[in-house]
Structures are given as structure tokens and as C-alpha cells.
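The material for today's practical consists of a large collection of protein records. There is nothing in a record beyond a sequence line and a structure line. As an example, a complete record with its sequence and its C-alpha cells follows:
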Amino acid sequence: MDSLTHIAVGACVGEAFFEKGFGKKALFWGALAQSIPDVDFFAGLWLDTSENLLAHRGFTHSILFALLVIPGLSLAADRIHRPHDIMFKKWLLFFSAEVFLHLLLDGFNNYGVGWFEPFSHHRFSFNAIYVADFFFSIWAGIAFLMLLILKRYHPRRKFWWKFGLFLPLIYICYCTFNKIIITNDVKDILRKQSIPHTRYFTTPAPLQNWLWFVVAGNDSGYYVGYRSVFDSKKQISFQYFPRNDALLEPAREEEETQRLIRFSQQFYTVEQWNDTLVFNDLRFGQVVGWSDPKEKFAFHFFLKPEADNQLVVQRGRFAKWNKESVKALFRRIRGN
């Protein structure tokens, strides 16, 4: 999830734990605790881009990190707020709920979370909700704002923390339901259309949960398409992209290339753009692919020493968005 969503959800959890007994300080501790795993953001200050891709949502999003940081946060809060009548085990329970909730929520996105770092580099991802989904975040955001405004003993504070937690919970359950439906449909479609594949994934297209991006293929290449929960026909119009592994051979043994392959979880293609070799990570979707099925991939990394790849995850996320592409998105959501 994005940082603002974590802050808002964390504040609501803080209010739920302490309510009137701790005042608005609970909002602060909740927002802080939900943000702690994202300290890996600072790694980008000294790591190069390919290293930072693996560092993000790596160790600081692991169970081991959570077990190390939770006692420290609990001790700090316990000492700062003395004298108080809050038992230490409540601090532990509170910070455990906050940190582990952060790790769980990030697992619903497509980036992947290293829950078992440093013992295993496997990244976990449910691919059930887009990283910035207005329909998930808005409820916690409204609740956070109201909790900031309302006085400490206002009777409506209880309503607002419930509003900020239960509506996002309902929505994420709805997203998971959509994920199950889409995945089952895709399995049938891949079989009926005889799409050769050894691996596949489904993930929401940007900013919503009704249109899904579908990738299926093998080491030769990938078939890419879109599936709406409102589609009536059991078919997908796929566009094929060869993986072009041969293009990667001159740079395959370089550390940067190895990191990119590991990060992509094998869902990548390679292209030659004029004199530049380009590594595409398919998991982040296409640039307005619902409008043009042959469009470039949002994540494209230039394998060139002097290339600027700092914003590689964000570079193509909203490129070419305009009035017409947004209209096309809504048309495709409505179904075929």
C-alpha cells in the first residue's frame, strides 16, 4: 500500500486499541508503527536502482525485522509515557498488530514482500489489489481526518475508527473475491484458447479492481491481455511478446542483470530500442495497454551505464494517460 494509506490505517488501529484512555497520542503511535517497515525507503540514498528494487519490501518487511522492532517500540512508548496504567503486554500487542498488519497489507499488492528475509529471498504477493486504490484508502483517510478533528472524549470517535477499519476490510475481501473469480476464468480461458504457458499471473489494472491484467507464458515469451469482472465472453484477446533472452546474453552475468531477473520472478522480456537494451518487468503492467495492446511495459529498465533508472517503477505507470485513454479504461471495465 502507499504510505498515506498505511498512516491512516495505523492511526485508526491506534484509536481502536486505546480509545479515550490515551487520547490523540494513539493516532501518532499508530501512524508511526504502520510506517516503520517503510524505512527501507532510505536505502535508495546509497544503493543503486537494481539493489534498491530488492531492498524495498525486503528485510524491513520480514517477520524477523518485525520481531526485532516490536519490543523496541514497546519499550520506547512505555518509557516516554510514564507514568501510565498501560500494561507492557498491551504495548507489545498493539505494535505487533500494527507492524504485522503493514506486512500483510503490502502482500496484497504485486511488488512482492520478503516475509522470510534473510533466510529466503522468495517474495510473497497475492496480487489482489492495486498499490494505490482509492476505493480502499478513502475510508481510512476520512476516518483519520475526523479523529484528528474530534475532541478526545467525543462519543463519535468510536464510530470513526470502526468506519476507517471495517470498510477497507470489506473492500479488500471484495477484491480477494474478484481475484478468485478472475483467476478461475483465466485458467479456463488459457486452456480453451490453447495458450502455452508454464507460469501466469493476474493483477488489477491501475487504480481499481474490476479490470485485471493477465500474463501467461514460458521462457520463450508471454501472452498479455485484460479481463474484466463484467466480461460475458469466456475469451481474452492476447498480444504475444517474445522474451528475447538471446539479447540479454552479453549482459547476463552482470550483477545488475541478475538482480533484475530475480526481482522480476521470471516475468520479463528484453527489447532493443535503437542502441539501448531494455529489460521489461511485466508484473507492473503496460502503459495504457487496455487502449493499445502493443504498448510498452510500465517498468522498463535501460541496461546502459549512463541511463537514468531511478524512477523505473513509476516511470511508465501513468504515462500517456489522457481523456481518451481514461475513457477507454472505463469502456473496457464495462466488459466485452
Notes: The chain has a mean pLDDT of 95. Residues 152 and 216 are 53 Å apart (CA to CA).
